[in-house]
From TrEMBL, chain A:
PANTHER family for this protein: METHANOL DEHYDROGENASE REGULATOR (PTHR42759:SF5), MOXR FAMILY PROTEIN (PTHR42759)
Tree of life domain: Bacteria
Recorded GO MF terms: ATP binding; ATP hydrolysis activity
Domain ATPase AAA-3 as annotated: residue spans: 37-167
Lineage: Bacteria, Bacillati, Bacillota, Bacilli, Bacillales
Keywords from the named record: ATP-binding, Nucleotide-binding
Similarity remark: Belongs to the MoxR family.
Keyword Nucleotide-binding found: yes
Protein name: MoxR-like ATPase
Species assigned in the record: Gracilibacillus kekensis
ChlI/MoxR AAA lid domain segment(s): 230-301
Pfam annotation, one family: AAA_3
UniProtKB/TrEMBL annotation, chain B:
Signal peptide range: none
Biased composition range(s): Polar residues: 553-565
Residue span of region Disordered: 553-598
Domain (Transglutaminase-like) ranges: 471-549
Molecular function GO labels: peptidase activity
Name of this chain's protein: Transglutaminase-like enzyme, putative cysteine protease
Regions crossing the membrane: 7-27, 39-56, 63-80, 108-126, 133-154, 166-187, 199-219, 614-634
Key words, A-Z: Hydrolase, Membrane, Protease, Transmembrane, Transmembrane helix
BP-aspect Gene Ontology terms: proteolysis
Origin superkingdom: Bacteria
Pfam family for this entry, one: DUF4129
Keyword match DNA-binding: no
Length: 316, 734
């Protein structure tokens, strides 16, 4: 666990920019370390971009931004081959997806075709343009945002696509104290400009490997499985959390444990992450809405009902 | 601070004073109720004990002072010698050793006044200590108040002591003090500076209310007791109870037989002891009027004195009957107030040890001793001629009953159901002589499945006949059912008969005094109370019969053998043999029945004893269990803690973290700190630490987490871990 102690530095660095958003910052870092992607659902102007930029600057990563519009084409995302008359060859001009950290802004504004181009890239970790397969950068971290207020002319992400995001977050408005502090800091110069890298890209990749190697006990695994299957059997649920969701939860829990400075996962990690990892993977029945049940409430209820393992697994 | 101390000490002094006053109420009745003298000295001693307990802290000084006071009082009362002189000490030593020896031998009544006073003073000492503890330490005044009121009520009810004034005093003192002690308790939990003025505002209304209530209680009209005076009631319940009116009664001799029936419980209280030749039935009286429900007398009792104890009254004429003279000694149990004289058949003379005069009612044959003299020894001797009835003669009796006999002893209620007389006629269908008829009815019951039992015997309802009910419906009953039925059946056949009450012979006492040949000492208890039948034979007089199943007539009947030989008539002989067989069969049966009965009796007695023994055994077991349960209940927390620690020590010996930690969890849950299902160990630990004001639970949980979620042996120092556990446990048990 060579780089575990770097985590705190990263967080500190980002928090210089993001005031009062420790939770979201931590979760974003969790997603990054777990090699997953984040869907941010929030109104404009609450600092989504700022967080991603701060993250990428702290990690010495290349930051790319795609502003999704209805007329955006897949090739605008992935890149395109252009004929070079001089050399007489098609030259690949890589799109913004070939960045390390990609902000996909207002992803629900673009056509499903373009959306799927992005999501496929996220899943496959490579892009195929004109029959050529190009690997994406490593690390590769997408933070997609969608605006929950503005539904006019949007293309909501299909459920299958949502599943590709490790977690769904929302920033929310800062409280008054934090906002005041924010004004103070941005008075002269934006603090984002002062942020310097804490670690390098290569170190980040090492950190991801370390996260992967964290120990998850059978008791905790079983706990995750119990939680996930509980979402599938609930009466309010039309579609429960997929096995991909279980894996995601475990990976996220590992990353969170890593951030917490542990080399093993405890149920607390799972409990903490479950709402963020599972909520967007659940499709409720229509009647659940009438009952006032939301995905978050359902998960809280499941967490209350499933017994946290306090004994060692009895083998045999 | 000083005001607080003074207030609490004042209030505890008042409490103690009130306790002393109440205790005084306990001592007051002693002079009246017991033969205690100089009771003021005891009061003074109690006061000394109370004062010493209150003012002194040092246990040894307290002990010494109380002891000295005790000696001084004893010296003042009993010891003429100089205090602490050699003779004085010698005297005390003699007294104590003598009385201890007496106590050892259980001869309590020999104990001297000195020693009794000593013991009583010691009791007062103990009581004062106990009360001091109750009032000032435990602050429990109420128990003693209740006890005092109960004590006074009992004394007032059962003794000559008149308690109303004592009651009023107790009421006023105790309620004022209860108010005060409540105040003290409240103030203990409440930090107020202004306690003195609070006390006044608290106590004034209490005193006012108590005084008002006391005055109201004294001057308000009081209803008469709603319950009957318990003393006679309890006495009658505890003592000998007649065949009275309740559905369940105690067995025994009683005077009122107007309503028979109902169940009995056994009562083996001794009624009298008798030295007598053979087992005899003890007659008391006969009754002649059957009402359909029970027996009454046709005429009022008319006692005439027996001159020189000569009894002229006879149940049979002496000249026609073969008799043997005997003498019987009867000693009534002094505690048992049986005023009647019991006597065997053939009585001719009765003599009292105390030269008492006896009175006799000629109609019923009831003899009573002069009741004015309450002498403890009311023994008397009876001379009697035990009759032997010749069966031949009985059979050959004429049917010419005198008119007065017919008048009195053929009476039957008008509404006697017809089926009773029909049955009687049916039973005696084949019999010629009066004796055989009587004999047929006598044996009818036992031969036809009428069973003897004392429990679940019904009382005839309105419009039902006692005999009819027994004969045709219940078929179960005790002596009254059998004997009454026989009398009624005989009367329905125009055979004069009467109903006799008394006692059966009782049981021979195990260790017999030296007595002449054939004589034995019998003990007769209430269980031996009995009733049977006398049938009138014009030539022979009244002959006793015993219809009750399982009982045997002790009267001697004999077969006149010579007459058989003399006549030599074959038919007569045949008759005789017939008679003999017919006679013997019941006799045999009787004998068997007797044996059975005896077995039963013995068995019953043994069972009774056993049963009593077992009863006490079980009662004591139950009491012990109850006490243990109470103790366990009161000490449940300590017991639980002890158990917890014991189990805990076992776990820490090995220090397997999982059992230890899980045990901790269950322990916490039992103490009300329940972990919710979805609560992770960390969240729980934080919660517990907050509630117990510890930090150890969190540390422990971290260690446990490593073990369970990291699948790793404990890396931490084991002793450190053990300490963590120990501290949490201590905190839980604290």
């Amino acid at each position: 666990m060579e780089y575990q102690n770097q985590v705190a530095k990263i967080l500190q660095n980002i928090e210089r920019v993001m005031i009062g958003k420790e939770q979201e910052v931590t979760l974003s870092l969790v997603a990054l370390l777990a090699d997953g992607h984040v869907l941010l659902e929030d109104v404009p102007g609450v600092g989504k971009t700022m967080m991603v930029r701060a993250l990428s600057k702290s990690l010495d990563c290349e930051f790319k931004r795609i502003q999704f519009t209805p007329d955006l084409l897949p090739s605008d995302v992935t890149g395109v081959s252009i004929y070079n008359p001089k050399e007489m060859v098609f030259e690949f001009r890589s799109g913004p997806i070939f960045g390390d950290i990609v902000l996909a802004d207002e992803i629900n504004r673009t056509s499903p075709k373009t959306q799927s181009a992005l999501l496929e890239a996220m899943e496959e970790m490579n892009v195929t343009v004109d029959g050529m397969t190009k690997s994406l950068n490593k690390p590769f971290f997408v933070m997609a945002t969608q605006n929950p207020v503005d539904y006019e002319g949007t293309y909501p992400l299909p459920e299958a696509q949502l599943d590709r995001f490790l977690m769904k977050l929302s920033m929310g408005y800062p409280n008054e104290v934090d906002e005041f502090e924010m004004l103070n800091r941005t008075d002269r110069q934006h603090p984002i400009d002062e942020i310097t890298p804490v670690i390098h890209k290569e170190q980040l990749i090492e950190m991801q490997k370390e996260v992967d190697s964290l120990y998850v006990d059978a008791t905790v695994k079983r706990y995750i499985v119990q939680l996930v299957s509980a979402t599938r059997t609930s009466n309010f649920v039309q579609l429960g959390v997929s096995p991909r969701g279980s894996i995601a939860l475990m990976k996220a829990a590992k990353a969170y444990a890593y951030i917490q400075g542990r080399d093993y996962v405890i149920p607390d990690d799972v409990v903490m992450l479950a709402p963020y990892v599972m909520a967007h993977r659940i499709i409720l029945r229509p009647e659940a809405r009438y009952e006032g049940v939301t995905q978050e409430k359902l998960i809280t209820q499941i967490l209350d009902e499933i017994d946290v393992p306090v004994r060692k697994e009895l083998h045999g | 601070m000083t005001s607080k101390i003074s207030l609490s000490s004042i209030s505890s002094f008042i409490l103690l004073l009130a306790g002393f006053l109440l205790f005084w109420e306990w001592l007051r009745p002693l002079e009246e109720v017991t033969d205690t003298g100089n009771s003021h000295l005891f009061v003074i001693y109690t006061a000394i004990c109370f004062l010493v307990s209150f003012f002194l802290r040092n246990g040894w000084v307290k002990f010494a002072l109380k002891f000295i006071a005790l000696l001084l009082i004893l010296d003042y009362l009993f010891l003429a010698e100089t205090l602490l002189s050699r003779e004085w000490l010698q005297l005390i030593k003699t007294e104590v050793s003598y009385n201890l020896e007496i106590a050892w031998n259980n001869d309590w009544y020999l104990m001297t006044a000195f020693f009794r006073s000593l013991l009583f003073l010691l009791l007062l000492w103990l009581m004062s200590y106990l009360l001091h503890y109750w009032f000032t330490v435990a602050n429990k005044f109420f128990i003693f108040v209740v006890l005092t009121i109960v004590y006074l009520a009992v004394l007032d009810t059962f003794t000559v002591y008149d308690a109303p004034l004592a009651m009023v005093r107790t009421f006023v003192i105790s309620f004022v003090v209860l108010g005060l002690s409540r105040y003290v308790k409240l103030m203990d939990n409440n930090e107020t500076n202004d306690k003195q003025s609070n006390l006044v505002t608290w106590m004034l209304p209490i005193v006012a209310i108590v005084l008002f209530a006391a005055l109201l209680g004294i001057y308000s009209p009081k209803p008469t007791p709603q319950w009957p005076d318990p003393v006679p009631f309890i006495k009658s319940t505890a003592g000998h109870v007649g065949f009275g009116d309740g559905p369940v009664q105690k067995v025994g001799y009683g005077e009122d037989d107007s309503r028979l029936g109902g169940s009995f419980v056994q009562d083996d209280t001794t009624v009298f002891e008798a030295i007598v030749h053979d087992n005899v039935y003890w007659r008391i009286e006969s009754k002649d009027v059957y009402t359909g429900k029970g027996w009454e007398r046709s005429s009022e009792l008319d006692y005439a004195p027996l001159e020189n104890g000569e009894v002229q009254w006879r149940t049979f004429p002496l000249e026609n009957t073969e008799t043997t003279p005997y003498e019987a000694m009867v000693r009534p149990e002094s505690t048992n107030e049986l005023p009647k004289v019991v006597y065997p058949y053939g009585i001719n003379r009765i003599e009292s040890m105390q030269r008492e005069t006896f009175y006799m009612d000629m109609a019923s044959g009831m003899i009573e001793a002069e009741s004015s003299e309450q002498s403890p020894n009311r023994s008397y001797s009876v001379q009697y001629d035990a009759p032997s009835f010749s069966l031949d003669e009985l059979r050959n009796n004429s049917n010419n009953d005198p008119e007065d006999i017919k008048q009195r002893y053929l009476q039957l209620p008008e509404d006697l159901p017809e089926r009773v007389s029909n049955l009687a006629a049916e039973v005696v269908e084949d019999e010629e002589s009066r004796y055989d008829k009587a004999k047929a009815i006598e044996s009818y019951f036992a031969q036809n499945g009428y069973t003897y039992q004392i429990e679940d015997v019904s009382v005839p309802d309105e419009g039902e006949d006692y005999v009819d009910q027994f004969l045709f419906e219940t078929h179960v009953g005790y002596c009254d059912n059998f004997s009454t039925s026989m009398v009624v059946m005989l009367r329905s056949l125009d055979i004069p008969a009467r109903w006799v009450k008394g006692f059966t012979g009782g049981a021979e006492v195990a260790d017999q005094p030296p007595l002449p040949d054939g004589y034995s000492l019998y003990e007769v208890t209430n269980n031996n109370a009995h009733s049977w039948v006398e049938v009138f034979f014009p030539d022979t007089g009244w002959v006793p019969f015993e219809p009750t199943s399982g009982f045997t007539n002790p009267t001697d009947f004999y077969q006149d053998v010579t007459s058989d030989i003399d006549t030599g008539d074959s038919s007569e002989e045949e008759n005789a043999t017939e008679e003999e067989t017919s006679e013997e069969e019941p006799e045999l049966e009787d004998a068997e029945a007797e044996e059975e009965q005896e077995d039963n009796l013995i068995g019953d007695l043994e069972n009774n004893d056993n049963w009593n023994g077992w009863l006490y055994f079980w009662i004591s077991i139950i009491v012990v269990i109850l006490i243990l349960a109470t103790v366990a209940f009161l000490k449940r927390n300590q017991i639980r803690d002890w158990y917890t620690l014991r189990k805990w020590h076992k776990l820490t010996q090995k220090l397997e973290i999982e059992p230890a930690y899980i045990y901790l969890l269950t322990l916490l849950e039992k103490r009300g700190y329940k972990r919710r299902k979805g609560q992770t160990l960390r969240q729980y630990a934080v919660e517990i630490d907050q509630q117990l004001r510890t930090t150890e639970m969190y540390d422990l949980t971290l260690a446990y987490e490593q073990y369970i979620y990291r699948n790793q042996e404990i890396s931490e120092d084991k002793s450190k871990l053990r300490n963590l556990f120990q501290r949490v446990i201590d905190q839980i048990l604290a």
